[in-house]
Structure formats: structure tokens, C-alpha cells
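Lecture 7 notes: from sequence to structure.

We start with a single chain of 349 residues. Read the sequence below before looking at the structure.
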Amino acid sequence: MRAIVIPKNGPPEVFEEREVEERRLTPVDVRVEVAAAGVNFADVMGRVGLYPDAPPLPYAPGYEIAGTVVEAGERAAERLPPGTRVMAVTRFGGYADLVRVPEHAAVPLADHVPFDVAAGTPVNYLTAWLGLVHMGNAKAGESVLVHGGAGGVGLAVIDLARGRDLVLHATSSSAAKRERLLELGVAAALDGTASDFEDQARRATRGRGYDLVLDPQGPESFQRSLKQLAPLGRLVCYGFSSLVTGPKRKLWHAVTSVLKTAKVNPITLMNQNVGVLGLNLAHLFTERELQRTAMAKLGDLLDRGEIRPHIDRTFPFTAAGAAASHTYLHERKNFGKLVLVKEGVAPTR
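Now the structure, written as C-alpha cells:
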């Protein structure tokens, strides 16, 4: 089968299309013919060589797909027989024509949900739900700040926050994106990279701080976020996007950034009555029941139109398309999700 692989760490242009061997199915697996695959910042970090969980090179990145089951193991076929439209989370390998996934990681997809929308849902919405609801325990009336509000997870948080009676703020370094975030209903849009960010946040919360901060950016941002917590506030850290500053790895920048990561003293947390939580979706792939339940919930919400990922752009499902999508992420142009789409699959308008 054909896969879009990273043969070596480097700029987006390193992507190659190669023939790779299909993996044998177990009784609980399905093989999906991929129609669309989501593009995530973790893919970018893996390509530049800054993702410690990445498999040995060469490998195909990709954490989420949508397509059609073409083969199913004996037990998996009871729920997901061949011909079933599905969306699924994968542990790498999503940039390929065919992907083997365990049935608990896939969910049937309603006929009216486009493949590109489905492929752009699992990673962002699972992360957003876990950060906002499961770990962050956001309750009605609380103030929430999501950094990188214009990214896929940020917009998913905004989507999931509707109807929860939260006071939601978001950050973006782009004035144009901040305007769009305000149009989506956030109560305040801040410049998280500005030197006066702490003053912005203080004014926005009238000096009280935030009950919950969701932060995917990295060391310096984590420290600023920690300072903005109200009593009993929670900081959920779920990324290190600030480590990638260009199309190639800058090892010195990455090392010095990690060394700057604040050392959290439990006594300080106790005295300030705040908490820090870490979230890495890639390390939850063994939590089968969590995955099964969460994917079923996402499928139901998509079916009923209660969530809708914002697809910024789609790109061809080719090495050149993958390179173009990663370049677009490097340049921080996206407002929402990027998706690779097979030829003949109509993108959402």
C-alpha cells in the first residue's frame, strides 16, 4: 500500500510516497481505506525530530483518519463490518491509503458527515474534552483561558464550551485571528505573546485570575499561565508548540526552552491553592474503554450537529500536499484544522 512517510528529519519537503507492507489484522482490528487524514502539530514535531514518542524512521505520521472499512477481524466485524464509514484515532500511520486500527479506536460515521470533517475531529475534540471537562472540571460560572484559541484544539474548546455557562477567553498573536475569536463568542481575546500579557489578563479577569487555563505552547507560556490562576485554579498543559520555530529543528532552542521549564514546588501549589495537570493524548491509547466511550460520544455529537470542527483548508493526499500543509502550520496561517483529502473526496464548503 502507499504511505506518505518521513524518511529523515528535516523541512516539509522531506516527505516521500512509498510502498509499505500492510499489517496483519487481529480478530479485534479493522482495516480502513482512508479518505481523509487530519494534520496535527504533533506530526510537525515528529517530522523535525522533536517528538520523543515518534517511531523509528522512516514512518508515516498521522493520528486521525476517516474512511471506509474494507476488512475486519472476526470480533471487530460484529460492530464494524466491511463497508462501514468510520472515523478513527491512530497511533501514527494515518498518512496512508490503508490503516489498521483496533475497533475500540473507531466509530461508525453518519452518512451526512463529510470525511474531511470527521478526520478533523478526534484529536482536537478528545484533547479539548479531556482538558476542559474531564481533567479541567470546568463548571458553570468559571473563567477559562485557552491559549492558541485559533488552533484546532482551541476552536474545539470554544465549541464544547457552548451551553456550559463559562466565561471563556482565548489568546492569539494575530490581531486578525483575535477579531475572529471575538466573533465566535469568546468574552476576551488576548495577545499571549505580548510583553503586557499579564496586565491584559489581570484587566480581563478584574484581578481575580482564571479558574482554568489550557496551554499547548510550552515553558515560558506555562510559567505565565501559572501566575494567572485564581484560588483553586487549574492549569492543564498539553503541548510544546513553542519548541518549533521554523521548518527545521533548532536543537539549541529546544534544549534551552526545556531547561527553562518551571520546576513546580508542591508546597508552592499548596500555599497558592492551585494545581497543574499534564495531558498527552498519545499516552492514552491503551485506555480502551475511555477511547471507545469518547469516540462514540464524538460520533453522536457530529451526527446531531452539536459539534463541527472548523476546517481551515484541505490539501491533496500526496507528499506534496503533506509538505504544503506542514508549511502552512509552520507559518501559523491556520484558523482551525488542516486535513489531507484523497482525490475524488469532495471537501466541505
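The radius of gyration is 20 Å. Keep this in mind for problem set 3.
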